[in-house]
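If I may wish for something, please walk me through the protein I am sending here so I can picture the backbone:
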Amino acid sequence: MKQRMLYFPNKQLKLGLRIWPVMVSDLWGGRELVWRLFLRNWLARYKQAALGWTWALIMPFIAIGTFVFLNRAGILNIGSTDVPYPLFALIGLAVWQLFSTGLSSGCASVVSSGNMVSKINFPLEVLVFSSIAQAVFEFTVKCALVLVFFAVYRFVPPAGALLFPLAVLPIVILTLGLSLILSLVNGVLRDTANAVSLITTFLMFLTPVLYSEGEAKSAFFRLNPLTALVNAPRDILIHGRVKDPLSFLWASVFSLVVFLVFWRVFYLAKTKIPERL
């Protein structure tokens, strides 16, 4: 006897809080697809590039060199740092580009896989998660470069530096949350991806990424959660502790709330995504 399949409209809304185990189960079931999509994107990105993944190392040098030039020319005051400036800037830039690169690729992840979305039934969250995995991979490459700089400047990180991955986790969570909602918006307004690139570039200059926090004295810098999320991993590597733990705790809670809220919005709205692509 065949089992009858019944359709219930607004099933996800009727689940209420019981939707969270379903969301986690769907994502866990798509873990293999996350890995496969990551490999596909990684190979496609570097397949025909002459320098390959070394572009992940070249771009930080260009940005750091630009700020060194601006500082020596008297155009920009980067302030004093506790370690040599190239090392200070490289750590901050690595963390920032984890956020900016992940946000840009995550925003475009669903639209760029339009054919796949319209033909195959699978958890659409895996598209966003796989794009963030690409940003995490590039971040690990930059971390290897940081280790080289440690050796060049003969800087021995404190024992607390082992907590560095935990200090980076909140900004990854924030990137995932924002990417989930922006991927939906990008499905309706295709110029969202371009706007995200402009905004993240603008935000980098409003966040103490390449200059010391002492130069950031406005209220915006104190209220900007990205300030704490960038400073905390750098403080962990340099000092072995977070200088402003309260701000980091607030920013971490904010990141978690953003992720949970936007993940749920994405899950409830994903049935409407194929018709928008």
The first helix runs from residue 11 to 15. Residues 89-276 form one domain. The CA atoms of residues 21 and 176 lie 19 Å apart.
